[in-house]
Specification:
This protein is α/β, with parallel strands linked by helices and 210 residues long. It is built from 6 helices and 10 strands. β1, α1 and β2 form a beta-alpha-beta unit. It is globular. It holds the Pfam family PRAI.
Amino acid sequence: MPRTTAKICGLSSAATLDAALQGGASHVGFVFFPRSPRNISPEEAAGLASRVPDHVARVGVFVNPDDELIARAIPAISAIQLHRTSPDRAAAIRARFARETWAAVAVRARADLEGARDYAGAADRILYDAKTPDDAALPGGMGLRFDWALLDGFDHPLPWALSGGLDVGNVTEAIGRTGARLVDVSSGVESAPGVKDVDKIAAFLKAVRT
């Protein structure tokens, strides 16, 4: 069975990026969403991306973005992660920018998983994330998790990753319970919103490896 790998998302400093790389992260994420405490500029992302070896994917995280923002960020990223973005819009972004495209599907109930099917042909990977409250300013990164049992027996339309409320204390259980081959963490490796912790990053990645 292939080993599970991890994406450390919402990185904004060289020290925390280096911790992710040294710990063996397969993906690193940069957030381009002004309302997020993890938001960075495309220029800042480019500086960080220059530290990332070719075998590690650089994922840009967007919330229903316009083409101008993506175009500014494109030099720094190798994949595009879309939240609150329709399948048609995701397909258009994928076609225009020719990057691997992830579509986030917010999950609270089993029926929410059916939304993943709409992205077949429009995206390359599904990111199952916990659904935030309707009035929440952020679509993710709030430490919420969904019931992993909802994934039992679900016929995934695309390769997928698991996100939402993961941390060093539960990621081993999450992998065992769901069979996820890629896990995605943000708030679970922070000491405060938007403040990544190098020790928590290292511990999380060690838990994933073992």
